[in-house]
């Protein structure tokens, strides 16, 4: 027989714990998950809505600021004040459709599409050097004119680096620890071809973002630390060589380090100086939406590379902190995906996309606030530019696809319409029955 123990002051007997009974730690965890806030954060839908909400808010916020920053320059160029905004809104609609389609595509298809995306990006990057198709903007030959539209193929190259790297290293498994398997076939030839074509068009800013993508893919794949030391040294020497062999890049670095240039609003560093003026004018609370002075033909690329400066001028510190917070939310959503999934492809691809967005945002914001030289990288989802917006929303749509495949998420999303119908069924009808007289 099993004996029972009675303690002083206890209300009953203490029975032995069976196999199915919960331990004290499990009971504490269940109580914690039962709290309203913690319980919602532990929902399978949390990651999905974090990424979707941050993406939607950034796109809407960006449309508002693009209209505010571009209206004056459009009028000065004898165009309608909403011309840039209308074009950006059209790309936002296209990006939303692309992201929605990407989120509902089966996960296996993204593994199959990695090689076609790579081949397509290489072909488009190669067409940039065709005289009748390639377009040079700001000293960089990184645009491609196809009929009435103009695209930047390097944006598709970023996605190719993510998908191919995830597909290759997901299949290698423990072989990633060997240096030759870390180099072949991802670094050589995939990453080498794409980055070489981008650098051939003198687009160092985009190449730096691609280096960040490659580094994140290798790190999450399990490549050893000594390989990063070797690759980092080679990469740093390569960037130094590219800077020294370009007069334009050398001038940018020299002027960035020159105090005299940074104090001259009419000189070579005028764009950086006016960007700092915009942030200083905004102060703590900003001058008000639409009331920027620097966008009156003082600050070049106000609606593109320097839109963060206009946000700081018009909306002050709260506006800039909102942007930083939303990118932090995306990073948190990506982190949740990486730690909750068991699929190596999903984990590696998520890391690559997170590095893509955060590195590009850091480079853009760093140039605006004067911590980095200006190298012409747009702020993801916020700056004007169709290629960047559509491709970035496609990448986030892939993350939504990954989030939908979390355990329980797809079932809860499918049950949402049924829940809505059941909620509406309990509402009173519009025309109550008349009483019989």
Automatic annotation (TrEMBL):
The keyword Nucleus does not apply. InterPro entries: Cell_cycle_FtsW-rel_CS, FtsW, FtsW/RodA. Residues 1-27 are annotated as: Disordered. Pathway: Cell wall biogenesis; peptidoglycan biosynthesis. It comes from the Bacteria. Pfam families: FTSW_RODA_SPOVE (PF01098). One of its GO terms (biological process) is regulation of cell shape. Residues 1-13 have a biased composition (Low complexity). Belongs to the SEDS family. FtsW subfamily. It is found in: Cell membrane. This is Probable peptidoglycan glycosyltransferase FtsW. One of its GO terms (cellular component) is cell division site. It catalyses: [GlcNAc-(1->4)-Mur2Ac(oyl-L-Ala-gamma-D-Glu-L-Lys-D-Ala-D-Ala)](n)-di-trans,octa-cis-undecaprenyl diphosphate + beta-D-GlcNAc-(1->4)-Mur2Ac(oyl-L-Ala-gamma-D-Glu-L-Lys-D-Ala-D-Ala)-di-trans,octa-cis-undecaprenyl diphosphate = [GlcNAc-(1->4)-Mur2Ac(oyl-L-Ala-gamma-D-Glu-L-Lys-D-Ala-D-Ala)](n+1)-di-trans,octa-cis-undecaprenyl diphosphate + di-trans,octa-cis-undecaprenyl diphosphate + H(+).
